[in-house]
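Entry 0007
Protein: SDR family oxidoreductase
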Amino acid sequence: MNILITGGSSGLGKSIVEMAAKENHTVYFTYRNHKENADSICSQYSNSISLNCDFANSKNLKEFLNKIPDFNLDVLVNNAYSGITLGQHFHKTSITEFQEAFQNNILPLISITQKCLETFRKKKSGKIITVLTSALVGTPPMGYSVYAATKAYIAQLVKSWSREYIKLGITSNAVAPDFMETALTEETNDFVKDQIKDGNPLKNILTTDEVAKVVMNLMDASPQLNGVIIPVNAGINIL
Ligand SMILES: NC(=O)c1ccc[n+]([C@@H]2O[C@H](COP(=O)([O-])OP(=O)(O)OC[C@H]3O[C@@H](n4cnc5c(N)ncnc54)[C@H](OP(=O)(O)O)[C@@H]3O)[C@@H](O)[C@H]2O)c1
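Output (structure tokens):
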């Protein structure tokens, strides 16, 4: 299969890129800053192709969008996230922070998905897999209003896509992982990590490889599996 993974240079995206490359798929992945990570993945897997794009830069994004039809894609994994998870209490959060989260995450994800749908609609098949968060399960942690609201907006898109394109054999599903140790969460202190570990029924912190395996299963799944959001959190709660 031809697969595009956004934000494949680190964390969860890197795990997905590596697993897909090991299965001999052709793997296109984007990165923003970490060229050295991207180069190292490409030198290890000759079937992986890195593309530099900062989704917050409209010219950059447009150039990237123009390349997508050439990839003849079968799968899109919407994984990249621009910004931070833990912010301030809602009343201290500026309007600009909400605007930036929308501008840098939701709008690029919409443009990329629309562009991939051009290929999927022609092929009458395709899989859209989107990375959400278990912060959507129950009540989000304190300071998560921007992050959780951004992901909640995307969760609704995931469901709309599943409704609108299934007749063309195109599915849309998502994963909603619990906390993983990545660059996005590197400022989390040990006390909070211990609490997360303690709250997990398996007494483990979820790894990016564990979530990547769920994403790989979604790539292989029958189109009968559509419109689902899979929490990956050892069943702490249900979505
Ligand atoms: N870590 C967690 O606890 C957790 C839990 C649930 C869900 N998630 C979700 O998992 C996904 C991956 O996150 P992660 O934890 O693996 O974080 P990460 O290691 O920081 O990876 C984020 C990726 O997104 C790319 N990126 C960031 N800003 C970008 C921008 N403006 N334009 C283009 N690409 C950009 C980064 O590229 P560069 O590194 O090259 O800059 C990187 O490849 C996100 O959707 C996140 O919300 C994470």
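Curator remark: The pocket of NAP is lined by residues 7-13, 30-34, 53-56, 79-82, 104, 131, 133, 177, 179-180, 182-185 (CB under 6 Å). The chain has a mean pLDDT of 96.
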